[in-house]
Amino acid sequence: MPQNKLSMYRWRKHKDVVWAGLLFLIGGLTTIALTAVDVRTGLENQYWPSTPGQMLSARLLGGYGRTPYHITVEYVYEVDGYRYRGHVIGYGGFHLVWNSDEAQRRVAGWRAKTWVPVFYDPAEPERAVLISGVDEGIFIYFIVGGVAAVLGILFFFVKEAPS
């Protein structure tokens, strides 16, 4: 069989593996890139000034089976006479909690009409968080993304499966 026909035969035989490799590689690299953006923003907001804010709501969602609890919040705060509405807890997974007691404790601390410190970006005051810094749990996303990317690369080296 000529070389050209042989390589076309291998492509047809292994194209599913190649596509899977591409998906793993792109997914892994995307996860790493998005996590890096969250880490950078979390490191930046450690130096943001704070202002008093008032909680409007804090809700606990999910937690069914093996899924994490998802905390949603809404708060208002004022900067230079302008009133803003925020919903970000922090960067890097602060809104996801696996432990029921920890999730309940966090939500209880953000009851409606309580005053909380709000950290805001002085250049863009509409960007704000309740917890500054980076949640250390975010680094698991670097690991997951890295493993997926490596698996994606390994898919490209798959030869023929043993018969």
Automatic annotation (TrEMBL):
Pfam families: DUF3592. The keyword Membrane applies. The chain crosses the membrane at residues 138-158. Keywords: Membrane, Transmembrane, Transmembrane helix. Residues 62-134 form the DUF3592 domain. This is DUF3592 domain-containing protein. It comes from Nitrosococcus wardiae.
